[in-house]
Amino acid sequence: MTSLRNLPAIDTLLRACDPLVAQYGHERTVRALRQVVDGARQAALHGDPVPAEAALIAQTAHLLAADSRPTLRPVINATGVIIHTNLGRAPLSNEALAAIQAVGGGYSTLEYDLEPGTRGYRDEHCARILAEVTGAEAALVVNNNAAAVLLALTALAQGRAAIISRGQLIEIGGAFRIPDVMAQSGAHMVEVGTTNRTRLSDYAAAITEQTAVIVRAHASNFRIVGFTEAAPLADLAALAHARDLIVLDDIGSGALIDTAAFGLASEPTVQESLSAGADLVLFSGDKLLGGPQAGIIVGRADLVERLKRHPLARAIRADKLTFAALSATLDHYRRGEALDKVPVWRMISTPPDAIRARAEAWAQAVGGEVVASESTIGGGSLPGETLPTWALALHVDQPNAAAARLRQYDPPIIARVAHDRLLLDPRTVLPGQDEMLLAALKEL
Ligand SMILES: *Cc1c(COP(=O)(O)O)cnc(C)c1O
């Protein structure tokens, strides 16, 4: 009990806290002091020594600093997972960032037509460039692909039947489940085929007067191998169109460039899906497209028009910052410079030798060993597919504890632990982050 009496009063501590009060205000500083002193009291009750006044104030400063940091913070991704969903998916190009700055920092033509000086429509901002780079008739941008799928099903199949293969009743991370989205849309889901095999005849047999759409959903994040069969999209489209039905193709990632050019399996491209006859193709803006979070719908103009006019469209509309960043990202494709300018594609297309040279420069600076490793695409794209890479491997006593310490840096560094080593893959560390990374590793 004698030690407890040594705990200074809040007022006493406060007198030594002028800089904290100046920075954080009186009320927040007092609250933090109380929290720290309460903690010290509890610890003392359990037999811990009472900290000195200076230590209590240092703890308070630390607490206030931690509390003041935003929870959404930039991090350095050294995991080698390119579209890391938990780390914000696609990093944006410099041009996309500049577009956000230009549009977000002031007023814009979001819904304004300059020539007559009257109301315009936000839906127009990415429509033309999307049509141009995908070859589609028309396009619509909404908040994300989950919303795009919900809107398409609701607008085109509510109260009617939607046919889908049992092999495509998928769940994407974040609890997006096709059967749940179907239920939410009010479409009556008709499952056909089996988990591993669905034939064209299964679809044909399920079509009734009630049928409005045939849905295809890309099994983005898993693969069924072995005794499998799926009806080709072109056949599905021919069947659907002969019966006046609509084909919705949820391709997930929305690649405009074929991943096969980089030694990976082919992820379906938007162009492929359209030319195979899909009426509407739906995909994300922030997966392989490499842009901002968005749901993109391209295809037949009459159907896009129906989606635009549905009341749900207003509830899931995209923001001006999205249009700004998406336009700038799409422009890289139009100019044929996506591999250089879109970070996701720059990372995919970086040759292993260039990555090795960077890893070796890191090893020169901080020690460790350069080892062959594998990067992955992530973001629910190309499961099981890897890109050969070179990583810096650090042999440390407790790799998990070391990884935790790297996460305490500002900006936090996210590394991988494998075979009792800390692995840092240069592929996903952005140019310009090397110095910060190496400073942290030196301290470690
Ligand atoms: C990722 C994905 C979605 C969800 O897209 P979000 O943009 O994350 O909403 C839907 N369908 C498929 C097939 C996907 O891969």
List keywords for this structure.
20 helices, Aspartate Aminotransferase, domain 1, single chain, alpha/beta, binds pyridoxal-5'-phosphate, five-stranded mixed beta sheet, Aspartate Aminotransferase, domain 2, 3 domains, 19% strand, 444 residues
| CATH level 1 class label of the largest domain | Alpha Beta
Q: Tell me the CATH superfamily of the largest domain.
A: Type I PLP-dependent aspartate aminotransferase-like (Major domain)
**Structural class, from helix and strand content?**
alpha/beta
Structure ligands: pyridoxal-5'-phosphate
If you average the pLDDT, what whole number results?
95
- Tally of structural domains: 3
Residues in helices, as a percent range? 40-55%
CATH topology of the largest domain: Aspartate Aminotransferase, domain 2
Care to count the β-strands?
Answer: 18
The low-confidence runs, each spanning 5 or more residues with pLDDT under 50, are none
Task: Estimate the strand proportion.
Answer: 15-25%
Number of helices: 20
What is the CATH-assigned architecture of the largest domain? 3-Layer(aba) Sandwich
Q: Tell me the strand order in the biggest sheet.
A: 5-13-12-11-10-6-9
Rounded to an integer, what's the Rg over CA atoms? 27 Å
Largest sheet: 7 strands, mixed
State the end-to-end CA separation: 40 Å
- Rough outline: globular
